[in-house]
């Protein structure tokens, strides 16, 4: 199916084709479309946002529309994508109330009436703060001049996100929610052009510091861009640009931010001359901007289907520079790098990275491009047009087996757009067979256990010129024995110079046991937590994993006595039910003595259930002083209530 939108200045209509564009049918709209959001799984389900801030839904690929809600915040509406596929037709949105407040609302795409809506977050939220990503929902609420951030994991009730106590955030961006963990960039009160990276536990509540002072910049639309790049195809691998004493340097991690290291510069330049560059004084630095425009490549590129290859622009030296930019490639996932061009190029991946295509970034017209069949080691020049072309963009065809690219541009400043289709199929005379591949082990400077597993991928041998077709993926993965390197410091703990995780100055480890009562258990942290989605087994796992512990007993405190009806009057000869409440301590494991004030007293040991209350019948009228004493081996507490008992009048 194909959908075309008409120019809103002429009319508001959709043109829809069900036969790949052979014929179109026109559907008039009674609103002007500002943006469309297609459902990730159901191709006929669409949300449309109008220019007057209304949200419409369609289950018929735009042939009919239903008004869902008015006053919706721009770009703050989402499809529900739960990992378990529950409620695929649920829509999340942030809407403005009549008096100008913002609220988080969920409703079904076919019915969003007042009765069927739900408001998962009690009360109002800050404008423009709703984010729904994977299994997580985030909102922000400013009180007392400070923003507070709340998270809901798998639609559970919202909890306040906990950063270290000393952190005073003024801005936060959710960077990734992959693999049941939140990666967030937080700007502290004293930061202007940098953010700190924090990583959470599975629920997204407790955050620990992963990297300080990551460079940030303003995008064209005022949006914040953070210099962090998630490498495609290898879980847990990120590149980040960190500011140290006004110099920006590029760091790499293979274990989701537990350890970071500088990039080793190439040993030689393009001409084979040696590069003298010693770590840590000199290293390779990369630009990590990803392009907003789908037709031009950004400064860095990697693909799920070519897990070890990263192409990026950057420079060798003490810091990242905006001048003197060259192109670099790695084909062993960032361990070693090679320089491939002295000027900026756009690089496209074709045939699972089996072919790399490079085209120069220039305002002048060009007629050549460069091809590499050996992961960027050698490049050959091809001409793709007889007339030089001003290139506006390049597009690789989608799909697994893409060997076609489209270059579009114009021959002169006055000419129409030209599309040049380049098909590389003729270069290959056969498909790859098993013997054309070799195993390649992922490693980090020789360390093969990454994220708790040894992973071996298959790569095409560099001298073979065959077409790969479908992606084979990693060949094998086997778990490693857990070592200290597989564990991060837990919330409230910091790594000291000897490598141990010890409680931070602001954290009291016994605070966890304060919130629980006798007979229950809590998780007593060892100071370590396993890196989420790390697959290691045995080894030190047992020693570093938090242990469930019995909650300590406490002296009774904050005892209250009240009647079940909440009244201080009762009738003679009728049952009165007294309820006991205790703020601290445990009623079920205490001695309870009750004096009803009419000469009768009872005592209970190990009272099994106080929920039903303690019942008593008064035979006489009057005002009675009811006293309760609760005690255990650690202390006692008492409470008093005056009850007025009246008689029934018989007419």
TrEMBL record:
Q: Does the keyword Aminoacyl-tRNA synthetase apply?
A: no
What keywords would UniProt list here? Glycoprotein, Membrane, Repeat, Signal, Transmembrane, Transmembrane helix
Q: Which InterPro entries match?
A: Ig-like_fold, PKD_dom, PKD_dom_sf, Sortilin_C, Sortilin_N, VPS10, VPS10-sortilin
Q: Name one GO biological process term.
A: post-Golgi vesicle-mediated transport
Start and end residues of each PKD domain: 595-639
How this chain sits in the membrane, per its record, is:
Single-pass type I membrane protein
The superkingdom listed in its UniProt entry is Eukaryota
Protein name (Swiss-Prot/TrEMBL): SORC1 protein
Lineage of the species this protein comes from:
Eukaryota, Metazoa, Chordata, Craniata, Vertebrata
């Amino acid at each position: 199916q194909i959908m075309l939108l008409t120019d809103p200045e002429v009319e508001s209509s959709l043109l829809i084709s069900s036969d790949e564009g052979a014929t179109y049918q026109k559907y008039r709209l009674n609103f002007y479309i500002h943006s469309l959001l297609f459902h990730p799984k159901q191709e006929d389900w669409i949300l449309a946002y109008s220019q007057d801030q209304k949200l419409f839904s369609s289950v018929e690929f735009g042939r009919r529309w239903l008004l869902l809600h008015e006053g919706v915040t721009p770009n703050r509406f989402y499809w529900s994508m739960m990992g378990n596929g529950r409620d695929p037709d649920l829509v999340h949105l942030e809407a403005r109330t009549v008096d100008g407040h913002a609220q988080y609302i969920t409703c079904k795409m076919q019915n969003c009436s007042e009765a069927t809506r739900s408001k998962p977050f009690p009360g109002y939220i800050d404008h423009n703060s709703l984010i729904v990503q994977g299994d997580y929902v985030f909102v922000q609420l400013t009180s007392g001049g400070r923003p507070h951030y709340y998270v809901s994991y798998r639609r559970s009730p919202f909890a306040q996100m906990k950063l270290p106590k000393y952190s005073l955030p003024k801005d936060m961006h959710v960077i990734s929610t992959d693999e049941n963990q939140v990666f967030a960039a937080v700007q502290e009160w004293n930061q202007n052009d940098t953010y700190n990276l924090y990583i959470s536990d599975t629920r997204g509540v407790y955050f620990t510091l992963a990297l300080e002072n990551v460079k940030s910049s303003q995008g064209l639309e005022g949006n914040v861009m953070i210099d962090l790049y998630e490498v495609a195809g290898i879980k847990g691998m990120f590149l980040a640009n960190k500011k140290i004493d006004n110099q920006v340097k590029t760091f790499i991690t293979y274990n989701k931010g537990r350890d970071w290291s500088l990039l080793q510069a190439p040993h030689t330049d393009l001409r084979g001359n040696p590069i003298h560059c010693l770590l840590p004084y000199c290293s390779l630095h990369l630009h990590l901007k990803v392009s907003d425009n789908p037709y031009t490549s950004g400064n860095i590129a990697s693909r799920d289907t070519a897990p070890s290859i990263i192409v990026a622009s950057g420079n060798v030296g003490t810091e990242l520079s905006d001048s003197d930019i060259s192109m670099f490639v790695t084909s062993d996932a960032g361990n070693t790098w090679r320089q491939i061009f002295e000027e900026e190029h756009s690089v496209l991946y074709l045939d699972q990275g089996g072919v790399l295509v490079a085209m120069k970034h220039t305002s002048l017209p060009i007629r050549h491009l460069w091809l590499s069949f050996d992961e960027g080691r050698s490049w050959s020049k091809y001409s793709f047009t007889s007339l030089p072309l001003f290139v506006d963009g390049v597009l690789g065809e989608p799909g697994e087996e893409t060997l076609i690219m489209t270059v579009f541009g114009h021959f002169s400043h006055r000419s129409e757009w030209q599309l040049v289709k380049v098909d590389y199929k003729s270069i290959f005379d056969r498909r790859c067979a098993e013997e054309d591949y070799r195993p390649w082990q992922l490693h980090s400077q020789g360390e093969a256990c990454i994220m708790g597993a040894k992973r071996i991928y298959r790569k095409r041998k560099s001298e073979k010129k065959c077409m790969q077709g479908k992606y084979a993926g990693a060949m094998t993965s086997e778990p490693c024995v857990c070592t200290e390197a597989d564990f991060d410091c837990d919330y409230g703990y910091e790594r000291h110079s000897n490598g141990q995780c010890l409680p931070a100055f602001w954290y009291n480890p016994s605070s966890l046991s304060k919130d629980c009562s006798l007979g229950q258990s809590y998780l007593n942290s060892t100071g370590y937590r396993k890196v989420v989605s790390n697959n290691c087994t045995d080894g030190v796992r047992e020693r570093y994993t938090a242990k469930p512990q019995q909650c300590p007993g406490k002296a009774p405190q904050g005892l209250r006595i009240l009647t079940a009806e909440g009244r201080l009057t009762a009738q003679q000869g009728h049952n009165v039910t007294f309820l006991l409440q205790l703020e601290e301590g445990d009623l079920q494991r205490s001695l309870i003595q009750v004096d009803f004030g009419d000469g009768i007293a009872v005592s209970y040991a190990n009272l099994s259930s106080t929920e039903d209350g303690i019942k008593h019948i008064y035979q006489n009228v009057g005002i009675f002083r009811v006293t309760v004493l609760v005690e255990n081996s650690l202390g006692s507490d008492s409470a008093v209530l005056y009850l007025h008992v009246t008689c029934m009048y018989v007419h």
